[in-house]
Write a structure and sequence with these properties.
55% of the residues lie in helices and 17% in strands. It has 555 residues and is of the alpha/beta class. It has a domain of 210 residues: Rossmann fold. It has a six-stranded antiparallel β-sheet. The chain has a six-stranded mixed β-sheet with strand order 8-12-13-3-14-15, sandwiched between helices. A three-stranded antiparallel β-sheet has the order 9-10-11. Strand 1 and strand 2 form a beta hairpin. The radius of gyration is 43 Å and the shape is elongated. The two termini are 18 Å apart.
């Protein structure tokens, strides 16, 4: 429920603050006073696309604030997803700059405009903004009808279609794979054998390169090992003997000098390390050339590099290719068996879908009849006794290409505006006023499931009067018992049915036109109703009080 709305520098509204209560509230005022601007303000605070014209001339920006009681579980879930507290009222803020750009906050936290729009989708029902267009769309008409169909039946047909679609895709993929010719299969087998013989593993190229380079430098390795042994340990003046002389020279004096003592320790460590080197040099000196192993390594390296160049990948890529080829070859080998199994699964999936789609179609026929029956009294009360609505359901049970997740039905709302006129598609025959009252009738008979808690009606009473206007007011008042209802109206009958009335006035202040809003007290309402009747004399006032008494009896 909307409990507070503040609007600054928005159109003709300079600084307006309103507090709202539950039930039906009506906004009334002279033509051009700014009633529809208030509807724009409500849309803006809930994320409607910003319009630079909304910013009051001469102002840098318009600002809107709204406070909402948070008692909808869908809203709780949305706020939790955005890490917003859900225990307190919801504070919305929208700032629209003069250049048309805007920013949004929720409970003081900057938010994308999309979040305001999602909140609006849950909280706000702007009658006439969406339904008039939506009601003429097949998808929206189907949603209205399916709201009366058992939910489990709709879920069953959706699940059966998903399974059917999945099996169709698997069968299509298999048949496509079967189309690969034997040359492709032979090529994959040939390439797989070549790569398999290489015993590929991560780092194979580097290991083979080291093996080849080592074999190509055997003589140099042997010579380096022998010469290094002579210099290190075996020659007449080798490194280790020279280091021993140094150690002997300073060892006797080390106790008398810290530097010599440290040098002695380090020389001992160096000698120990040098002592570990000869076995490695001896191994290099003793190295023998294995010509066969070198030849095999060279061939394996050349084959590996050629494969990597042809397939433009490294060892890991070649291993992945081998896995892919193995799977594809296995699928080709078992394709006939797999196709037979999939054909059987497809037949069963089609059978299941036909069952569930047929059941949904039957339930829709029943729901269509009930909707037309439930709607009839409201159409009569709203001055449309000659109008008839029927839901035409075309089934495409014999056309699998027309099957979808919601069934095989094509749903069209058909309308006959006057007796004797043929039924035609709703979009072709309904006027704006008829659409407005038709939507109101649909809402009144419960066709709109999970409707937002705040409903705004603008121009719902266009083209009507007399007893029909009373019916509209009575329906809106009844709706106000379950939802918070805001109505912009020029009809005294509708205004008299509201629990609360706000007067919209256009005034002049300092040479500028300003729209002011004032919540009327009970003793102020007769004068406004009298004005709507066209006069402010005693007779009009008495008539206004009678109308208010009648309207309040609907509460």
């Amino acid at each position: 429920m909307l409990t507070e709305l503040k609007v600054k520098q928005f159109g003709l509204m300079e600084d307006v603050r309103l507090e709202f209560e539950a039930g039906m509230s009506v906004f009334t005022g002279e033509t051009g006073a700014g009633k529809s601007l208030l509807v724009d303000a409500l849309g803006a605070v809930f994320g409607a696309r910003a319009n630079a014209d909304w910013v009051r001339h001469g102002a840098e920006r318009a600002e809107l604030h709204a406070v909402i009681e948070n008692d909808d579980m869908r809203l709780h879930a949305l706020l939790e997803a955005q890490d917003i507290e859900t225990d307190e009222p919801l504070f919305l803020r929208r700032v629209i700059n003069a250049d048309g750009r805007s920013r949004a906050w929720v409970n003081g936290i900057p938010m994308p405009l999309k979040v305001l729009q999602e909140i609006g989708g849950i909280c706000l029902d702007l009658h006439g903004q969406h339904e008039h267009q939506g009601l003429m769309q097949a998808e929206f008409q189907q949603q209205l009808l399916d709201a009366r169909v058992e939910k489990q039946a709709l879920e069953d047909v959706a699940q059966s279609f998903d399974k059917l679609k999945q099996i169709r895709a698997q069968l299509h993929q298999l048949q496509h794979q079967q189309g690969e010719n034997e040359n492709q299969a032979a090529w994959m087998r040939s390439e797989y054998d070549i790569l398999s013989a290489l015993n590929i593993e991560q780092g194979l190229q580097e290991r083979l390169m080291m093996q080849v380079e080592s074999g190509q430098h055997v003589a140099q390795i042997q010579q380096a090992g022998a010469e290094s042994l002579m210099l290190l340990d075996e020659g007449e003046n080798n490194v280790r003997s020279m280091l021993a002389q140094v150690s002997h020279r300073i060892e006797s004096l080390a106790a008398y000098h810290q530097g010599l003592e440290a040098a002695t320790d380090l020389l001992a460590q160096v000698d120990a390390l040098l002592g570990e080197i000869p076995p490695y040099l001896q191994d290099a000196q003793d190295m023998a050339l294995d010509a066969e192993a070198l030849h095999q390594a060279e061939e394996q390296l050349a084959t590996l590099r050629d494969a990597m160049r042809r397939h433009q990948c490294d060892e890991a890529g070649l291993l992945q290719l081998m896995d892919d080829w193995q799977q594809r070859l296995s699928q080709l080998d078992t394709a006939d068996w797999d196709e037979s199994a999939l054909q059987s699964a497809l037949a069963q999936a089609e059978k299941d879908y036909v069952h569930h789609a047929g059941l949904v179609s039957q339930l829709r026929q029943q729901a269509a009849s009930e909707l037309a029956s439930d709607l009839r009294p409201y159409l009569d009360r709203l001055g449309m006794k000659g109008m008839k609505l029927k839901v035409e359901i075309k089934t495409h049970s014999e056309r699998p290409e027309q099957w979808h997740a919601s069934g095989w039905d094509e749903i069209v709302f058909m309308l006959s505006s006057n007796p004797g006129e043929p039924f035609r598609a709703l979009a072709q025959v309904a006027s704006g006023g008829e659409l407005s009252r038709l939507v109101l009738s649909l809402k009144a008979c419960g066709a709109f499931i999970n409707a937002p808690a705040i409903a705004v009606f603008d121009e719902v009473d266009v083209g009507i009067g007399g007893e029909t206007a009373w019916c509209v007011g009575e329906l809106l008042a009844a709706m106000g018992k379950e939802r918070q209802v805001f109505v912009v109206s020029h009809l005294p009958q509708v205004a008299a049915c509201a629990q609360h009335q706000i007067s919209i006035l256009k005034t002049q202040r300092e040479g500028r036109t300003i729209t002011d809003l004032e919540v009327l007290r009970a003793n102020e309402r007769p004068a406004e109703i009298a004005r709507m009747l066209g006069g402010a004399d005693s007779e009009s006032m008495e008539h206004a009080m009678q109308m208010l008494a009648k309207g309040q009896s609907f509460q």
